[in-house]
Amino acid sequence: MPSCTLCGEKAVMSSSYLQAYLCREHFIKYFEKRVKLTINILGLIRPGERVAVAVSGGKDSLTALYLLSKFSKDMEYEVFGLAIDEGIKGYSDLRIKCLKDHARNIGVELHIVSFKEFFGASLDEIVKLLKEKGFEYKPCSVCGVFRRYIMNKFARELKADKLATGHNLDDEIQVFLMNAIRGAIPNIVREGAITEYSTHKKMVPRIKPLYFIPEKESLIYSKLVGLNVFLEAKCPYVIHSMRHPVRRWLNKMEWERPLTKYRIIATKEVIASMLGKVETKRSIGTCEVCGEPSSTAICKACFYKNYLFGK
Ligand code: AMP
Ligand code: ZN
Ligand code: ZN
What we know:
Elements: E1 11-15, E2 20-23, H1 24-41, E3 50-54, H2 59-75, E4 78-85, H3 92-106, E5 110-114, H4 115-119, H5 123-132, H6 139-157, E6 162-164, H7 169-182, H8 185-190, E7 194-195, E8 206-207, H9 215-224, H10 243-256, H11 260-276, E9 285-286, E10 293-294, H12 300-309
Parallel strand pairs: 3-4, 3-6, 4-5, 6-8
Antiparallel strand pairs: 1-2, 7-8, 9-10
């Protein structure tokens, strides 16, 4: 690797879109400054707020927890971690252990909620039930619905004003392109660095501090600052979706034409803001069964609970 474009020290990364090489110190400064600017310019967090960070143990959410905690004193807000233990043997258990170590190292309070405690069954048990019923619904769909349900409910009960996730630039562009491929225009308007559901008081606004951070840079940063990233195993239930070809295509385009990713996210922001003027915010009602926010009479979590356990 050549030397840093700014100071001549040994470079740790090259950025094709900046047309520069950066050393450890300059890369860390540049990375942290962008996350801070995202929070400040987009008003993701206000002084005095309490922020829950949804941490899975992967590089992105660990980086989000680490940085939100690092900035919290100067920016005068509180932060805590919230982890969901889905109950996948040989996967969730190892991940949760890793997370506990990380939270302890950086001195942040961590709350853990498990599917088993909350729904009465681990994901391993849920997958068995889905199998008996002929996999009418995919494990990832049920897991995603249950996870988002718990995250919102517990973030709210733990008095969080915001719920932060580790979604990075690549995640956001992949979702945008998938929405475009499906023609799901309302989703394009709704998704952003801050997703506010002001129409329901039980919905905690979600924020994405790594919205402008490319995946590759989040990986480099997490290694450079020595975060205890969980890499050992992949979720055994993951199903290869449309996201994988989109991801490959996007990385190829970025390699051939540096800045592609930033051009796409800029295009997305312009489209979303123009459409936002005509598209009103989705009005969210209340689930008749559990009282949580829902766009249908019975929320998806209650639907799956009834389907799986008949209650
Ligand atoms: P994914 O849907 O796996 O791409 O994850 C997106 C974001 O959701 C992560 O960056 C985390 O902030 C959050 N997340 C995913 N899985 C969990 C989990 N088991 N516990 C807490 N947060 C999670
Ligand atoms: Zn340098
Ligand atoms: Zn419900």
